[in-house]
Amino acid sequence: MKRIQMYRNKKVLVVGLAKSGVAASLLLHRLGAFVTVNDWKPLSENKEAQSLLDEGIKVVCGSHPVELLDEGFELIVKNPGIPYTNELIKGAIEKGLPVITEVELAYEISEAKMIGITGTNGKTTTTTLVHHMLEAEKKRVYMAGNIGTVACEVAQEAGEDDTMVVELSSFQLMGIQTFKPSIAIITNVYEAHLDYHSSLHEYAHAKAAITRNQTEEDFLIVNADQPELMDLISHSKAQQLPFSTKKIVKDGLYVMDDSIYFRNELIISLSDIVLPGAHNLENILCAIGAAKLSGAGNQAIYEVLTTFTGVRHRTQFVREWNGVKFYNDSKATNSLATKSALDAFSAPTILLCGGLDRGNDFDDLLPFLSNVKAMVAFGQTSEKMLALGKKAGIKELWSVSGVEESVGKAAEISRSGDIVLLSPACASWDQHPTFEVRGDIFINRVNML
Fold first, then answer.
1. If pLDDT is split at 50, 70 and 90, which confidence band does 336 have?
2. Among 417, 428, 329, 331, which residue's Cα sits nearest to residue 378?
3. C-beta of residue 137 within 8 angstroms of C-beta of residue 297
4. In which region does residue 360 sit, left (phi positive, over 0), alpha (psi from -120 to 50) or beta (all else)?
5. Mean pLDDT within 337-354
């Protein structure tokens, strides 16, 4: 960890707790800042805030009072989930105060090389694959960021000979100033999170911010199958390594003769890869690129790709029961991810879906429902999902109270050879705090069958 002095005696306001807010507060306190933490949850219900009080950090709980900005703060560190429309954040911006997220702090103190990974879909799988490939090459490597471990915590441990593989959301990337990964990956960009971002334009530019500060010494791995994305990053100073699942890109990663190539070098045959789903091919290409640029050999890459079967909550095989295979794809919080999951299977499928209603319809799923024999819907979008199923001509349509009941119904109506797929196409927040909790409930119920 770099012992930086830039925060010593500086007044910093951390807005929003959860894991990233707690980690940022403790780090800033350690770096000599005068830290105040503000969280909406009342102090009596807020264990995180109480723990920070014990460390001597000032805490203001119960609301986000704009009057806090009168206390002369020089910097705001914002929890990524808090939107920029929040009155306190808007007030800070109007006052000209810098507003960052904790990944900026992680970069400032990190001695390790950083690989940053973003995109609408595939971030977690790509991050995990890169981590495994570098581990297989016997390199010291840490996973961090949106994948679950707070980046500024990991950065305090990682040394100059280590590598941090950091999954980054658009929410995090909107709060960077100097953050600069040695290798950046943009898996893809599709319409998403428009309840947070004002437009697709803002969302796409947030993703592209990952390469904003890169120089000629850095690398950008980017999806050559998306012309709009290629235009968006055309001004990047980094060395570009394009990848494509549809065409040959001699200077990048591509598929030819049912094999994967890196800069014209044969890496692996597609038949040797065990990770299911055509959508994962993009993730595999990205991961190979980052691993090769980081010094991993072909044997390490081959070892991972012939054994890695998937990430928890992302088209994760759970169990076979009475000839029926159950898959947990709780991380599918948008219809694009559910399309990818449905496209991975050809067997008769029972789709478990539904969740938070963001106001969108799901008609784009229609072409992907041909193998769906039954739909079991729950949550705020239950009626929308069942209307979609009716439009698709699905005969068995069921509405249930939640994920747990959906497993019981699926078990009741399934037959040997079927697939039961939890792929909600919606966020979990109407019934569960995270998609992980939703997925764990599914897994536990399946294992009780």
1. confident
2. 428
3. yes
4. beta
5. 93
177-222 confidence digits (pLDDT tens): 999 999 999 999 986 555 665 677 888 999 999 999 999 999 999 9
Residues 6 or more apart whose CB falls under 8 angstroms from that of 311 comprise 124, 125, 128, 331
**Strand order across the beta sheet in which 372-377 lies:** 316-321, 324-328, 419-422, 349-353, 372-377, 396-399
Q: What structural domains does the chain harbor?
A: 11-100 (3.40.50.720), 103-305 (3.40.1190.10), 316-447 (3.90.190.20)
For 151, other C-beta atoms within 10 Å of its C-beta total 32
50-72 burial code (b ≥16 CB/10 A, e <16): eebeeeebebbbeebeeebbeee
Contacts (Cβ under 8 Å, ≥6 apart) of 30: none
Can you read off the two tokens belonging to residue 190?
């599709």
Element (H, E) at 333: none
CA dist 350 and 373 (Å) reads 6
- Per DSSP, helices labelled H in 157-238 are 170-173, 200-208, 227-232
Cα distance between residue 131 and residue 125, in whole Å:
10
Which residue ranges are tagged as binding site for ATP? 119-125
Q: Is the pLDDT of residue 315 over 90?
A: no
* DSSP 8-state class, residue 375: E
DSSP letter for 431, please. T
Nearest-Å Rg of the Cα atoms of the chain is: 23
What residues are designated binding site? Answer: 119-125
Q: What global pTM score does this model have?
A: 0.82
- Asked whether 118 and 169 are in contact (CB, 8 A), the reply is yes
State the average pLDDT over residues 43-65.
94
